[in-house]
């Protein structure tokens, strides 16, 4: 028996059927809405989706078609979903690149740099974390408008390069690295940036993966800020694009379902890529995503 | 450690990142005219096509369309107001017009849009775009709206329930209650009526669709002479009307919020009647075909009433080029392709010519009764700057009452909240009260 097969203390395999049934129920509860989403995205008629909702027919499609996907995946037109998807990817990539760099560098300096008032800075940062985005959104909008960044990618990227949560998360991880490692790098003649880049970053992959996933999901699902800051399709992301299928008088369920499936895929890929590190880091750091 | 190579690669990487960032992240270019709007995908397409046609007809002119999802439109407008960046043309929900004009955000459009368009607007369309204190027109639209009753012809005939022939022949309150009771025991009927609680608890649907029931019962959301809600919204007529609706819910006659908005035409037709907007027709007819019939709203008291008002286009006070904005609005609303898109989606006519050219609403058409009802019984929601407070208080009160709260207590609370808002704003001068 491998370590992973060893029952946790206080548990036993005395009721395997109960376990199996419980897991099956939980799986059904989690998977059925996603299955319904996927099935509905293959139905071309929004009225049919509504009429069948609430019955078992909602989980079945007689004549599956990819028409909804063909309809939305365009770069032109007034609701160019392919463009929204591309815009979201651009925002995601640059936010992740900048966010990982800024947050990790700030955390490294806080953990190992000789800076006066470190405790005060840390306390202030934790204090900043509890300020909800909604409360500063109008001030931020005014700043973005006044520097001429309205309706741009920059407006969606720059404000999210620094986050108190991720700085603190990485600070916690960096500050637990043994002092000997740092001292050895100094003796080796490494500069502070080289110690950060060549010593601390490679050994911090679980923490970095956690930050990447959390920041990635947060960026991907952003709604209020891109809604306010984008005016046209030029930089509009997918989250705001999907909401366009919910009209004043009716909801275009067929297109919204196909769009939702498309929106889910990158997050799923991101999670599956970093899943191993993410789980281990969440367990070790106690972070709730 | 190879420091120079490391520095070089780090420098190059950073340079490439900054270059790519700069290339991807430049702001979008500016336009001559900006228009903020919401709407269904077909409206987005229709407005986009109209803008392109206008640009082609007026070389050198560019229009920036700011489409915002319907559910988030108010947040977007609020942010634009805070940032002093309202675009030239703003689409807004008609009952909020007085609030926008009172706040100084809009300018009259009488002299900015085509005389031909002005003359073509239906009385209801004019009423939804007019600010009562100065009686000037601040907004216009191709369309308007109403609420009717939907039913199955076969079902009513099989149960020997009288089918009204027109607005003058509408069911009375007593008759309607008897019909709901009859339907509650009819085979296959799970709920006698859907009043679309599924649209949600914080939704304009509540004051929009339920106010006619109050007005027809002899009351209103507010006294339109004194602009006081206390004594009117919490008066006996309104309390009785709200209690009547609560009784329908208590009897299990109303489709619950959790059942969604498709129970009227879903498989097996669990709901027999639907108290729905004109836009519901295109959904229901797809499933029910010729069996679908459209009926006027019941007449609960001495007079019949129906709602009106929809999303209308106004020109902001700070517009850099109001003449151009008026020219584009006139062009768009009279554009044949724009009108066709709305006609294809059962758009409720706000222009006389559009009504005559819409087979759905023309005499003999399946929705003719809706157009007749609008002409005879439409009552706009209170055209007062306090409407946001009126709407919110009504939404809260009716949600609570239909969930079992005491009608008198909740309507009194709602009336007090409305009056407090008006008092806080010194009566919204020049409104005041008689």
Automatic annotation (TrEMBL), chain A:
| Record keywords, A-Z | Cell inner membrane, Cell membrane, Membrane, Transmembrane, Transmembrane helix, Transport
- Transmembrane residues, as ranges? 20-40, 89-112, 119-141, 153-174, 195-217, 251-274
Q: Which Pfam families does this UniProt record tie to the protein?
A: BPD_transp_1 (PF00528)
CDD domains, per database record: TM_PBP2
Provide the leader sequence positions: none
Predominant location: membrane
Q: Which PROSITE patterns match?
A: ABC_TM1
Query: Where is this protein found?
Result: Cell inner membrane; Cell membrane
Question: What GO biological process term is on the record, naming one?
Answer: transmembrane transport
Limits of the ABC transmembrane type-1 domain = 85-274
Topology with respect to the bilayer: Multi-pass membrane protein
Annotated Gene Ontology cellular component terms: plasma membrane
Q: What does this protein do?
A: Part of the ABC transporter complex UgpBAEC involved in sn-glycerol-3-phosphate (G3P) import. Probably responsible for the translocation of the substrate across the membrane.
Q: Say which family it is in.
A: Belongs to the binding-protein-dependent transport system permease family.
Describe the protein's quaternary organization and the partners it interacts with. The complex is composed of two ATP-binding proteins (UgpC), two transmembrane proteins (UgpA and UgpE) and a solute-binding protein (UgpB).
Return the protein name: sn-glycerol-3-phosphate transport system permease protein UgpE
- Write down the species: Mesorhizobium atlanticum
Cite the source lineage.
Answer: Bacteria, Pseudomonadati, Pseudomonadota, Alphaproteobacteria, Hyphomicrobiales
Automatic annotation (TrEMBL), chain B:
As for subcellular location, the record says: Periplasm
* A Pfam short name: SBP_bac_8
Keywords of the record: Cell membrane, Lipoprotein, Membrane, Palmitate, Periplasm, Signal
- Give TM segment ranges: none
Provide GO CC annotations from the record: periplasmic space
| Leader sequence segment | 1-30
What SUPFAM superfamilies does the annotation carry? Periplasmic binding protein-like II (SSF53850)
The similarity annotation says: Belongs to the bacterial solute-binding protein 1 family.
- Protein name stated in the entry: Sugar ABC transporter substrate-binding protein
Its source organism is: Mesorhizobium atlanticum
High-level lineage: Bacteria, Pseudomonadati, Pseudomonadota, Alphaproteobacteria, Hyphomicrobiales
